[in-house]
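Let's study my pick:
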Amino acid sequence: MRENMRVNYFSMVKFSCLMILLVYFIIGSEKSLQDISLECFFLALALTVTTLYEIVDSGKIGYLAVETALVILILILFPESGAGFYLIPFVALDIAFYFKWPLSLGALAFAGVFFNQFDHSAAYLVYCLFISVIYFQNHVMIKQYREKVENYEMEEYRLKDSLSDRDMLFKKKLEKNSLHFKNQMLEERARISQVLHDKLGHSINGSVYQLEACKVLMDSKPEESTRIIQAVIDTLRESMNEIRSILRSENRTGKSSPAAAQWLM
């Protein structure tokens, strides 16, 4: 409800001004209500059309044409009452703002001053000035304010969409990097496992055979057994040194993991 009033407030202001004008004309007329009934009918019809012109979104040119024709008809049929002159500012300003004429042509609202033959021309001039002010306020100042607000809202939506897109892109990159890191970890483990298999596997396997032989020769040939045991120790020590050398090389290139670095200790 409040939103509708905010959007259509100018229509209500315009309707109120025209209604006051109609009531003022009826009260101030020296003729009977029956004598001015036809003129009141045309005034009420002009009031309805000019109000609908502000409310509708399509077909405005048709309402504007009917509004203009009604005002001209009232001026022609009832020139003595002067009521039609009070409709001239509305029609002139509606035409000027509909066709987006320069603001200087808004002076057409005061056109009735040059044709008004009544004594209250000063009041009529103030009336035209008042109508011009409310039109200028709605079609220039408030319109520019609404356009700025709409631009700010569009910019806000654009920034929100941009942040949302960046957030999604960041999440995708994070998932991609996480998957890439996991693959690197698996590759590193496979590489270290292969290194351990190649370097330690053969050494341990050969050492087992030598120790088995040492077990057999321990009683009959103790010196030979001692030599074999020392050879096994040297072989295993050499293999460990090779593994540490490989892990140091991996650590310098930044490829080794914390678990692999324990071999360096």
About this structure: The first helix runs from residue 2 to 7. The chain has eight helices and no strands. Residues 117 and 214 are 139 Å apart (CA to CA).
